[in-house]
């Protein structure tokens, strides 16, 4: 369940946010003198993440200090959501921020607090009670809650194992999203994909236990055309080029692009922003499985766009299903076309799991996206559509190669491949996300995570000018 802010109440406990090197006294003037004495006696130095609970005379809790560290580390590079440590470490109950130094981003503080409450508990007993926050004065609670809802949705979808998040289940989740926000949804599945000219989605998914499909959501609204395309590989064995077991363990997350596209749509719809754009979400959904009818290395597939693709690795399947969906998207010449996919290991080698690369030809749009990521604490990093590598995706017997040999520039060649199917869009951006937090961090437990959603939410006004 998505958390809410605690109601404003005189019974909520005060939390003082304190820098360790402020010009004034270490403890806020609003803090009673006894509390300051208690802090000194217990060695509270306000280092980043330090918590000191303050006792009342009767032994109950009357408040707490939370350390922000030095002023120049109020937004430390190593900790994206610093106030999450307060939410995790304080006793259960309702809390309000009684005092915060100038320059502290209270919207980020509120978002961090709610994001830290996320737990994937579908298969566990109920979680214990946690500390709740009263929304700080001046913070747009609706925007924070909309972002939290989108983040939770994406995480839940990615974390759910394929036994409960196969193509049928992902379609059900998309239908629920559409129903919540008055969107329409159409589905093309199974052999109908061939009849309606989505041959590569069909080829990749036809060996799966559940039929491949293309989900097409349209949200009510008018304005610039924004189309999101999210890779929905519910499980990826690698196909006949089978992955080793160690590489297959996380493949429930290979629908992270679809999850992130849905999470972003949830944010936009909750904020009412879909009223002023024509939002379309295309989700090609498959299992890349092994059976007698699986597509093979060496096959040549003809895409929706008419371009032929030589299959040199069945484990490079994501770009194939995205290509058919992008070809459909570009037929409407959208103003902004975005693809989101857990696509290449090369992107992880280059930038790691926490910093997804994106590709965009327009310098102004790319700058707006990168700046938005910094403001939203959802960082991304631009990489190039490097034209000299175009020859790497052009094999001898077909128009395109889905897996160029040599292993160099894998993220770039994948992006160049996809760009061939998005050419009619006014602006195109591709995000090669990871969708997984490999080690726990404040507000980011180990497991599924959406990426680039808040970046795009923040960037859209600038991109659509």
TrEMBL record:
Species of origin: Paracoccus cavernae
InterPro entries reported in the protein's UniProt record: Leucine_aapep/pepB, Macro_dom-like, Peptidase_M17_C, Peptidase_M17_N_1
Record-annotated Cytosol aminopeptidase domain positions: 313-320
Annotated keywords: Aminopeptidase, Hydrolase, Manganese, Protease
Superkingdom: Bacteria
Record bears the keyword Ribosomal protein: no
Keyword Amino-acid biosynthesis recorded: no
UniProt-listed PANTHER family: LEUCINE AMINOPEPTIDASE-RELATED, PEPTIDASE B
SUPFAM superfamilies the UniProt entry points to: Macro domain-like, Zn-dependent exopeptidases
Family (UniProt): Belongs to the peptidase M17 family.
Molecular function GO terms recorded: aminopeptidase activity
Protein name listed in UniProt: Leucyl aminopeptidase family protein
Pfam families hit by this protein: Peptidase_M17, Peptidase_M17_N_1
């Amino acid at each position: 369940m998505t958390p809410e802010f605690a109601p404003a109440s005189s019974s909520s406990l005060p939390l003082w946010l304190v820098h360790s090197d402020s010009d004034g006294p270490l403890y806020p003037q609003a803090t009673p003198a006894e509390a300051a004495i208690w802090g000194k006696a217990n060695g509270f130095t306000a280092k980043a993440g330090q918590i000191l609970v303050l006792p009342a005379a009767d032994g109950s809790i009357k408040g707490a200090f939370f350390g922000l560290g030095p002023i120049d580390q109020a937004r430390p590079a190593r900790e994206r959501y610093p106030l999450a440590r307060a939410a995790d470490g304080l006793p259960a109950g309702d809390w309000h921020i009684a005092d915060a130094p100038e320059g502290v981003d209270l919207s980020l503080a509120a978002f961090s607090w709610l994001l830290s409450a996320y737990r994937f508990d579908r298969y566990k007993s109920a979680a214990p009670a946690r500390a709740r926050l009263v929304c700080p004065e001046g913070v747009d609670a609706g925007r924070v809650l909309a972002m939290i809802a989108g983040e939770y949705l994406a995480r839940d979808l990615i974390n759910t194992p394929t036994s409960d998040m196969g193509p049928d289940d992902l379609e059900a989740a998309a239908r629920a999203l559409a129903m919540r926000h008055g969107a329409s949804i159409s589905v093309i599945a199974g052999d109908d994909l061939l009849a309606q000219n989505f041959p590569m989605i069909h080829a990749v998914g036809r060996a799966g236990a559940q039929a491949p499909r293309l989900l097409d959501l349209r949200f009510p609204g008018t304005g610039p055309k924004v189309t999101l395309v999210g890779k929905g590989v519910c499980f990826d064995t690698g196909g006949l080029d089978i992955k080793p077991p160690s590489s297959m363990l996380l493949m429930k997350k290979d629908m992270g692009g679809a999850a992130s596209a849905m999470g972003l749509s949830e944010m936009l719809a909750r904020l009412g922003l879909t009223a002023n754009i024509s939002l379309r979400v295309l989700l090609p959904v498959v299992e890349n499985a092994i059976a007698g009818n699986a597509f093979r290395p060496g096959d040549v597939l003809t895409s929706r766009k008419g371009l032929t693709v030589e299959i040199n690795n069945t484990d490079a399947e994501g770009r194939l299903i995205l290509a058919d969906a992008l070809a459909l998207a570009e037929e409407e010449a959208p103003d902004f076309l975005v693809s989101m996919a857990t696509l290449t290991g090369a992107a992880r080698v280059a930038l790691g799991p926490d910093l997804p690369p994106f590709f965009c030809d327009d310098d102004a749009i790319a700058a707006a996206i990168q700046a938005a990521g910094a403001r939203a604490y959802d960082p991304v990093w631009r990489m190039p559509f490097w034209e000299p590598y175009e020859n790497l995706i052009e094999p001898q017997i077909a128009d395109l190669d889905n897996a160029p040999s040599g292993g160099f520039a894998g993220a770039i060649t994948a992006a160049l491949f996809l760009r061939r199917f998005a050419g009619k869009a006014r602006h195109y951006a591709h995000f090669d996300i990871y969708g997984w937090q490999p080690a726990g961090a404040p507000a980011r437990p180990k497991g599924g995570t959406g990426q680039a959603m808040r970046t795009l939410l923040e960037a859209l006004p600038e991109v659509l000018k």
